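Whether sequence alone determines local backbone shape is best considered at the level of individual chains. Part of our work consisted of pairing the sequence of a single chain with a tokenised description of its backbone. This step matters because it turns folding into a mapping between discrete strings. For completeness, the protein is quoted in full, as a sequence line and a line of structure tokens:

_____
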Amino acid sequence: MDLLLKAPIYRDYAALLSRHDLSPERPAPTRDRGESMRRAIDLLWGGVGSLGISWIGFYVLEGDSMVLVCREPKPACSPIGLHGMCGRGVREAHPLIIADVRTLGENYVACDPRDQSELVIPLLDDAGRCDAVLDADSYEVGAFDEHDAFGMSKVLVSLGLASPHLLTRMPLRL
């Protein structure tokens, strides 16, 4: 039997950017990456977190694992191995949309067993390298789509956390 996915909730990233006078065409200078990550989490959680998102945070590559640096609203696994979707996001440097995490088997790091879908956005530098990801989870299957990948990417670029090249990367659906 085919899994029926309902349409994702519409999250208005354009309004979020406008409300905070942010634009990917005018990225903010990043003086302190940690503070910029915290601001991104605050903006996203405050702006769209109540719309079907159960958790959002940043993982940074440290050696052969990923370390959680900031998140909302609850703690999560840290460090995590590179075998999961955050590790794959770093390696492939493409946004990843996972409609149903149960299909991933060993390739899924389950911090909250209630999570059903995931979105991973790599933080790319100008050379296309990635050393961190934004990770978002939902308790609903099929909660994220290309609109979310592009919208969250715009927030990251606007805050100077990722190169505008990120906006040209098509998300991979898994």
Observations:
- The chain has a mean pLDDT of 92.
- The longest strand covers residues 130-138.
- The CA atoms of residues 94 and 171 lie 6 Å apart.
